[in-house]
Design a protein that fits this description.
172 residues; 0% strand; 6 helices; Arp2/3 complex 21 kDa subunit ARPC3; mainly alpha; globular
Length: 172
C-alpha cells in the first residue's frame, strides 16, 4: 500500500510541477517540490527509502526533462540518502529540522546540478546562476516546505498506523 501511495504522490507532483506550478513562478523560478518530497520522506522513513525514492523521482525527471539520463537520479538519490541518515530518531512534529534540511538540500542539489550540467560544459557564469536560480529556488522551497512536510507527515502517520494494525493482525 505504501508503494502505491508514494507512487501516486510522486506522479501527481510530477504532473503539477511540470504544468500547473509554472503559473506560480517567482523570479522566473518554480519550487522544486520533488526535492522537498524526497527530503521529507527520507527524514520520516530513513536513508535507504529516501535514496530509493530519490532515485525514482530523479530518473523520472531525467527521462522527461534531462539532457543526460542519470544526473538528476544520482543527485536525488544522494539527497535522499543524506537527508535520511541523521534523522532516525527525531521529534517528527518539529518543523524546524525539515525547513533547515530542505534549505541545505536545495542549495546542495542546485549547486551540484550546476556543476554537472553547466560547469563541466564550460559555462562558468556561476554568480548569475547563483543569483537567478540557486537562491530563489532555495527560498521558494523553504516557503513551500512546511505545507509539503505536513502533508507527507500526515500520510506517513496513517500508513504507519495501517501497517501496525496489519502487523498486529498477522501476529494473532
Amino acid at each position: 500500500m505504501r508503494i502505491a501511495v508514494v507512487s501516486f504522490i510522486v506522479l501527481v507532483n510530477f504532473i503539477l510541477q511540470s504544468t500547473w506550478f509554472s503559473y506560480f513562478a517567482l523570479f522566473d523560478t518554480i519550487p522544486n517540490t520533488a526535492l522537498i518530497i524526497v527530503v521529507t520522506y527520507a527524514m520520516l522513513r530513513g536513508d535507504v527509502e529516501g535514496a530509493i525514492l530519490g532515485f525514482c523521482v530523479g530518473f523520472l525527471a531525467d527521462i522527461f526533462f534531462g539532457r543526460v539520463i542519470g544526473v538528476s537520479a544520482l543527485l536525488m538519490m544522494f539527497t535522499g540518502y543524506f537527508a535520511g541518515k541523521p534523522f532516525r530518531d527525531f521529534f517528527k512534529e518539529n518543523y524546524i529540522a525539515p525547513i533547515i534540511l530542505v534549505g541545505l538540500a536545495s542549495l546542495g542539489y542546485e549547486f551540484m546540478f550546476y556543476v554537472l550540467n553547466f560547469l563541466l560544459m564550460g559555462r562558468t557564469d556561476f554568480p548569475r546562476y547563483l543569483g537567478q536560480i540557486i537562491l530563489p529556488v532555495a527560498v521558494y522551497n523553504l516557503v513551500i516546505c512546511v505545507f509539503i512536510y505536513r502533508m507527507i507527515y500526515g500520510i506517513n502517520r496513517k500508513l504507519e498506523a495501517r501497517e501496525e494494525k496489519k502487523r498486529g493482525f498477522m501476529k494473532k
